[in-house]
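Protein 1 of 2
SEQ + STRUCT:
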Amino acid sequence: MTPSPTHVVLMPSYNAGPRLLSTVGEALRHWSPIWVVIDGSTDGSAEAICRLAAGDPRIRVTVRRRNGGKGAAIASALPEIQAAGFTHVLSMDSDGQHPADCIAEFMAASASHPGSLVLGRPVFGAEAPFARLQGRKLSVALAWIEILGTGIDDPLFGFRVYPVGALRQAFGATRHARRFDFDHEIAVRMFWAGVPVLNKTAPCRYLTREQGGVSHFHYLRDNLALFWLHVRLLAELFPWRLVGVWRARTRHAVRACTAAPLSP
């Protein structure tokens, strides 16, 4: 497979264990190059992926000594990614939940609409925890309030393609969005900025511990962080951004009418 000169898979990872190598291997079957950001891992996965990358030029690894969160890991890689000539990044979790076989499809959608944010709309299996599914419904409802209507089908699913320049601008607009609040806040802020949004379905799987699944979600800490996220966004929206967001929504509607249709 010829490495793409414009679109790169960016995979932040924190203590993913053996799943990291498996996920990178699955991704390489569908795309290259792959950039991995080790976000302060202490489980030996950093050493394992560095050994693999030493013999495979399709993989590039950056190691952060301290854990800063998913958003911080992605933000730290963007200057080098842009300097290397890449214009778009597909973010993909290292824990095996995201569908490697959808990478090429999402990259093609991005190439057809290079100014757009391509968001994954997850399709869950029967193994998905009920509490997580209900929490996502609440997050979708809050996102629709924050963007004054529909347009973001799932603000938490991290399998998505960003235009690098627009993503860096969104990071520059906030001191937050560096940890678990990253996926939701960045999607909302890019919508606010007028970045067109395309929603595409993709399967999402929850792996058991026996399958190598890992989760760093802490219900109390991270739900409090999400609560504070929505307080911040709504306080910024009303009244300071209300007119601007409404205008952005109008631009989104115009683009949706004129853009070529994509497969769901």
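Protein 2 of 2
SEQ + STRUCT:
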Amino acid sequence: MGKTGSKRARSAGPVRAAALLLALLTNTGLTAQAAVIGRMTPPEPLTEARIAALPAPQQGPWQAYLARSRALAALDKTALAAERAALAGPAPADPPEDHSGGAGMPLDRPAAWYGTPEARHVADVIVSFQTAAGGWGKNVDRRGPLRQPGQHWVASGKSFVGTIDNNATTTELRFLARVQAQTPGPAGQAYRDAFLKGARYLFDAQYPNGGYPQVYPLEGGYHDAVTFNDDALIDVVEVLEDIARRDRDYAFVPAPVAGAARAALDKAVQLILATQVVRDGVRTAWGQQVDVLTLTPAGARNFEPVSLVSQESAALLLYLMAQPAPSPEAAAAVHAGAAWLKAAALRDIAWSAATPDAGRQRVARPGAGPLWARYYDIASMRPVFGDRDRSIHDDVNELSLERRNGYAWYGTRPAQALAAYATWAPRHPPAAAVPH
């Protein structure tokens, strides 16, 4: 799993893929008898011991990566400690946490708005909260006050700092690009400098295999996994595309930085293709996150088991289909991924609204659908669900009330990918299978 397989497997057409998958999947998502089918295994972080187990020629880049991560973590800590040592009184309170989405950095306003005092203030706040390593934390409203010396960069005392989770860092970069474009000359130089520092942060954060951790400098635990969850990696590659093109808001980017972005982008796309899970010789979908070294699906939080994931797989397919000239490997990935989404669709069920006593529940509803579970077991290809106690279930209705109400166990995003595929596929017919 997690590898692209043999040349013959890579070229398997969508008809063969669908036939194999349909043999593994049911189309209802209903189980005859609910059961706890396993326990969530916490993922492994990136460590010296794991690197030492790699073949000798592969160890050097990973050792260098780990050393750089630790050096930048020390830089963040030293910078904050120095600020606090210079204070006459206690450190300012941590900024409050904000979950409104976008954190006060709208990216859909007319171009002229980004030259207004309101937008300039947001950009000034962004610059003030940039870490010494070059990234940004998440869930802080950038419309608030400037960061004060000694104030933490992240909300509510979170232990980690720079992250690509919840659109952090990528949104700050996009906003700075828009503001600097409307602020020519010396007045916009601080925004351009912060942007280029943030771009270097993305280059530093990229693993030797092209993936990205959720948190950088590395935090450990599931944060070290290559993260597709909530489109984290897709957000990064789309920013890298803009930097590499050097047009419009990004025309100020120096050519060497654009070249570095292109190289990082190419590695990230190869990582996407390498992590599509192969089941019985056929490509399927992707994990929500993958182990940093083995590139096989990994778990995350206690209720997020090792599995295939429908929503982020749909996003990856949409990204690959948006490429103007997809490689044969990318086209094969799309055909196979679309076949998996079609086979994984659930019908005749609905995910009900929450009620005070029963909460949200999966219910039978003839004619309903298609609907997709968030997670699918890799071995059986059936929907699976996790709870806070790390138990893995085959029936969402058996989860605790808190988890049933507090997580998106079903969704319809794959329908968008399949609609796009219906237009894309005739322009990119599948390659013929390679004979034995």
